[in-house]
Design a protein that fits this description.
single chain; about 110 residues; mainly alpha; Helix Hairpins; about 75% helix; about 0% strand
Length: about 110
């Protein structure tokens, strides 16, 4: 299955849960709790990715990254950001040196 389709399908499902019943939908629960709860989940999942990587457990890393991506999609829906927005940004960076791209954004890169 096309990964772009999977992201769009997940985005559509997540967005449809806005205003849903927090008793019957985890995503609706996150939206009801608000941005702080969503951000807390992203930090938690990012930490779990780090720990799985440090354990050198590829399967667990994949699962934890999937959790991180899912919660990031929830945050994106909170801000009405679509996967195409992120993919477009990534596409615009193709062929540009990471160092040059950081300089263009004003991020100081000290190698």
């Amino acid at each position: 299955m096309d990964s772009k389709y999977i992201l769009q399908s997940l985005n559509d499902t997540i967005s449809s849960r806005k205003g849903g019943d927090p008793e019957s939908s985890y995503v609706a629960y996150l939206f009801a709790k608000g941005q702080d709860e969503i951000l807390k989940k992203i930090v938690e999942e990012a930490g779990e990715v780090v720990l799985a990587s440090k354990d050198d457990d590829k399967i667990k890393v994949v699962k934890e990254i999937a959790d991180l991506w899912f919660h990031t999609l929830v945050l994106m829906a909170q801000h009405e950001i679509h996967p195409e927005d992120i993919l477009g940004e990534l596409e615009s960076r193709q062929g540009v040196s990471g160092i040059a791209e950081k300089r263009m954004r004003g991020t100081i890169f000290k190698g």
